[in-house]
Write a structure and sequence with these properties.
With 197 residues, the chain is mainly α. It has one domain: de novo design (two linked rop proteins) (Up-down Bundle). It contains 8 helices and no strands.
């Protein structure tokens, strides 16, 4: 009778340990989602600022239509992008176009003296700083989740939950949102989450 009591306690402890690890993985997965959401919010703030910036410089930079059209086109593509990888590529091109826009603006002293342009440039610099902070948070959360998934106890708990053992190719795991919506913590989904530069 005493043996059954001890066996029952051991089983309860093992189950509690497994539940604690599972909950830790869920918490870390949610932190990755939160990190991506932070990036997404800052990118939307930047995209919302761009039309004001374009209007501010349009009158001064009549001969630089190509730069303005490129920024406008990339903003539209960024707003329509769905997958993080695609959005990241477009946002990188948008950042480079904004740098070009500011470089061209250096040749227009009246524009550089315009208070509205100066305010928009300052707001954009602040948003860029916020994007960098959000990326750092996301990268840290992703790293922690990947480490937890690849570590022994977590890996054992995942396998015991009958998740697939076969790793899919990285191409099947491109979107964080779709990955997280799949079954909790598929090995390919977590092992192939990419850090954003």
């Amino acid at each position: 009778m005493e043996f059954l009591g001890v066996l029952g306690v051991v089983i309860v402890l093992i189950l509690g340990w497994g539940i604690a690890i599972y909950n830790k993985l869920v918490r870390q997965r949610n932190m990755v989602l939160e990190g991506w959401s932070g990036i997404d919010v800052q990118l939307k703030r930047r995209s919302n600022l761009i039309p004001n910036l374009i209007e501010s410089v349009k009158g001064y930079m009549g001969h630089e239509r190509g730069v303005l059209e490129k920024v406008t086109e990339l903003r539209s593509k960024s707003m329509a992008a769905g997958a993080p990888g695609e959005k990241g590529r477009i946002e990188g091109a948008l950042s480079r176009s904004l740098v070009s826009l500011f470089a061209v603006a250096e040749g227009y002293p009246d524009l550089k003296a315009n208070q509205n342009f100066i305010d928009l440039q300052s707001q954009l610099a602040e948003i860029e700083d916020q994007i960098q902070l959000a990326r750092r948070y996301y990268n840290g959360a992703t790293r922690n989740l990947n480490i937890a998934v690849e570590s022994f106890p977590s890996k054992w708990v995942l396998r015991s939950r009958s998740l697939p053992r076969k790793r899919a190719s990285p191409r099947t795991c491109t979107s964080i949102r779709s990955v997280v919506r799949e079954r909790l913590l598929k090995p390919c989904a977590l092992g192939d989450l990419k850090l954003i530069k």
